[in-house]
Amino acid sequence: MSKKTDWTGKAAMAGAAIGSAALAAALLYASRRKERAESTGPKTPPVDVPETD
Predict the structure, then answer these.
(1) Cα 40 to chain centroid, rounded
(2) In angstroms, what CA-CA distances link 5 with 10, 31, 34, 51?
(3) What's the Cα-to-Cα distance from 25 to each of 12, 37, 38, rounded to whole Å?
(4) Where are the beta strands (DSSP E) in 5-52?
(5) Residue 29: pLDDT over 90
(6) Rounded distance, CA 34 to CA 25, Å?
(7) Residue 27: pLDDT band with limits 50, 70, 90
(8) pTM higher than 0.70 for the full model?
(9) In whole angstroms, what is the distance from residue 16 CA to residue 22 CA?
(10) What single-letter DSSP state applies at residue 48?
(11) What are the DSSP calls for 1-53, one per residue?
(12) What's the distance, CA 51 to chain centroid?
């Protein structure tokens, strides 16, 4: 019985570590995406619009 508990405890620790890393990566991605969207700002049309046929 202790052998089963030994590997399940290690698996639980590994799962928690992977979950924490995934959460941190998701937060970094979201904050970078938000910063990029704010830095570009709204697109303004060009002043001299070329005539096309």
Answers:
(1) 19
(2) 9, 39, 43, 75
(3) 20, 18, 20
(4) none
(5) yes
(6) 14
(7) very high
(8) no
(9) 10
(10) S
(11) -HHHHHHHHHHHHHHHHHHHHHHHHHHHHHHHHHHHHHHH------SSPPP--
(12) 42
